[in-house]
Amino acid sequence: MTSEISRKYEVVVVGGGAAGLSAAVTLSRALRSTLVIDAGEPRNAPAAGVHGFLSRDGVSPGELLVQGRKEVRRYGGTVTSGEVVGARPSAYGFDVVLADGRTVAARRLLIATGLTDELPEVEGLRDRWGRDVLHCPYCHGWEVRHRAIGVLASGPMAVHQALLFRQWSANITLFLNDAVEPSDEEWEQLSARSISVVMGSVLSLEVTNDAVSGVALSSGKVLPVEAVVVGPRFEARSALLESLGVETVEHPRGIGKHVETSAQGATSVAGVWAAGNVSDLTAQVMASAAAGVAAGAAINADLISEDTRRAVSAAGSPFTAEIEARVSEKILGSRRHGLDAASMGRMESREAG
To answer: Does residue 327 register a pLDDT over 80?
Structure first.
């Protein structure tokens, strides 16, 4: 996917997922020279399909990106493979440095680098991630409906997850895994929804014929399940943003760290935008794409404002105070605001009296 790139662009987008590519399409359609730099590490690569994306339900994550890159190029944008290792302010805007030594200049930056999922240290969990180890019911709930689902507690949202997945299956088991102690109210809720609760730490997952078949406890007991739900800690891929002075903050629900932005993706640093999971930890693919469109439109509007200021400055203001005085003198002579000098004098005398 490596393409020949120019030395200078109006916008450089770092990250070629749903958010980054959608922003690039929006900007390219606005006739902005746009470069997308993608490291090729999509978070949802292990998943069989993308869901909740109108008209694209079930498409593989890889195919969605292939089609997105084609759309960017159709409108004149550029997409290249590469890892961005740094960015710094410059007279033009920013200098973006790639790991292979290439450097490009950008007037504006959009960071859409996503996040990483930090999973509990349970043997087999990472290997099955995105397949039959899940976290989002709206992404994968339908695919595991009516099955035996184990919810592996990893933090304060565990009971919420168990109650949530209860909508997709009547056979839910919550494994506390020494990670959480439900409140009295939560115990009541779990009981009312017929959700089984298992005490003790989880050692590993059992896999049979390339499918999760059970959860093994440290006690040696194995409980049969057909899918496992776990809430990972979400960590924004924010190193580039932090190097530019944009801080990451803890999410209000305690599920990880993210970058705070305006509704359109503007960060606390002028000229730098962020979109997708780097700023919205729980956004699904379609929401990330929408965030990219909003950020792209906002960046274009910001550039229009700057282009207009520059044009006015280059042309010179057509009606400065000095010019106004000269024009008034030529047109009105001694008259001001429809009054001649004598009338003005009489008015000033009355006011003084």
So the answer is: no
pLDDT for 316: 76
As a dihedral over the C-alpha atoms of residue 249, residue 180, residue 182, residue 207, rounded to 10 degrees, the angle is 110
Q: Examine the domain organization and report whether 158 and 69 are in the same domain.
A: no
Same domain, 219 and 281: no
Residue 2 has pLDDT above 70, yes or no: no
The C-alpha atoms of residue 254 and residue 170 are separated, in whole angstroms, by: 28
Q: What is the C-alpha to C-alpha distance for residues 307 and 118, in angstroms, rounded to an integer?
A: 43
Q: Residue 214, SS3?
A: strand
Domain boundary among 168, 197, 231: 231
Residue 314 domain-assigned? no
In the chain, % of residues over pLDDT 70: 89
| DSSP letter (8 states) at residue 115 | E
Q: What is the pTM of this model?
A: 0.86
If asked whether residues 87 and 129 sit together in one domain, one would say no
CATH number of the domain at 108, please.
Answer: 3.50.50.60
Question: Total domain count for the chain?
Answer: 3
Question: In what helix (H) or strand (E) does residue 185 lie, and over which residues does it extend?
Answer: helix 184-192
Helices 184-192 + 158-165 axis angle, to 10: 20
Q: What is the C-alpha to C-alpha distance for residues 109 and 37, in angstroms, rounded to an integer?
A: 11
Q: Give me 287's structure tokens.
A: 């929401």
Q: Does residue 316 belong to any structural domain of this protein?
A: no
More confident site: 2 or 67: 67
Tokens of 345: 């004098």
Kindly state whether residues 211 and 274 are assigned to the same domain. no
The per-residue pLDDT for range 276-318, each reduced to its tens digit, is 999 999 999 999 999 999 999 999 999 999 999 999 998 876 6
Residue 347 has pLDDT above 50, yes or no: no
Instruction: Tell me the C-alpha to C-alpha distance, in Å, between residue 44 and each of 17, 136, 274, 317, 324.
Output: 10, 12, 19, 52, 62
Domain for residue 63, yes or no? yes
